[in-house]
Amino acid sequence: MDKNNTKLLNQIKDQVSICTKCPLHETRKNAVFGEMDYNAKIMIVGEGPGANEDKTGRPFVGRAGKLLDEILHKYGLSREDGVFISNIIKCRPPKNRQPKKPEIEQCLPYLEEQIRLINPKLIILLGLTAVKSYLDTDDQMKNIRGNIITRKTRNIMASYHPAAILRNPNLRSLLEQDIKKVSKL
Ligand code: URA
């Protein structure tokens, strides 16, 4: 990655850490910018931080995150090498409620800058909140997952959120299929 882009990403990270654009800053412990590889070919976008992420300032570090890492590793991918993991919103909503529309609208420009600077070959949206926030669609996950679509010159795939898989283990093979497909690109 270009040194200047690294600098810009670090600047956004600093801005996010002190952001007060929406009320979620009042209850957060840490904003969660995302990690790790700025040279990532794949960017994974979840919904928003939960309790563990809020505590550590890192994305997907709870049970859902462990599952995501496990599936990524199975197909030769990892956040340390080739994958950048982030979220639609950077601060935890109280009691993990769904993010509200104005919170998403205030936060989305950070994600858009991250995408512009990292310039991944593919974006994976995990879960319907990420899908609806980024693609502005009402499609059901079962109808759209696993297909690569192109929007505003970006290649995008939707798949099941690992938290949904913890609730319904039958969905695991579908996320695995999608990650496997991506790993072969
Ligand atoms: N769920 C998400 O959507 N994002 C995280 O970072 C953690 C759990």
What does this structure look like?
This protein is α/β, with parallel strands linked by helices. It is built from nine helices and six strands. It has helices at about 5-15, 25, 50-55, 65-75, 100-120, 130-135, 140-145, 160-165, 170-185, and strands spanning about 35, 40-45, 85, 120-125, 150, 155-160. It has a six-stranded mixed beta sheet with strand order 1-3-2-4-6-5, with helices on both faces. The longest helix is centred in the middle third of the chain and has 18 residues, at about 100-120. The model has no long low-confidence stretch (mean pLDDT about 95). The structure holds uracil.
For the largest beta-sheet, the strand count, sense and barrel status come to:
6 strands, mixed
Strand content: 5-15%
End-to-end distance: 21 Å
Number of separate strands: 6
The general outline is globular
Say which molecules are bound, naming each kind only once. Answer: uracil
Helix and strand succession? HHEEHHEHEHHEEHH
Which structural category fits the helices and strands?
alpha/beta
What Rg is obtained from the alpha carbons, in whole angstroms? 15 Å
Strand order of the largest sheet: 1-3-2-4-6-5
Low-confidence stretches: none
Whole-number average pLDDT? 97
Which helices and strands, and how do they pair?
Elements: H1 3-17, H2 24-27, E1 35-36, E2 42-46, H3 51-56, H4 63-74, E3 83-87, H5 101-118, E4 122-126, H6 128-135, H7 141-144, E5 148-151, E6 154-159, H8 162-167, H9 172-183
Parallel strand pairs: 2-3, 2-4, 4-6
Antiparallel strand pairs: 1-3, 5-6
Bound molecules: uracil.
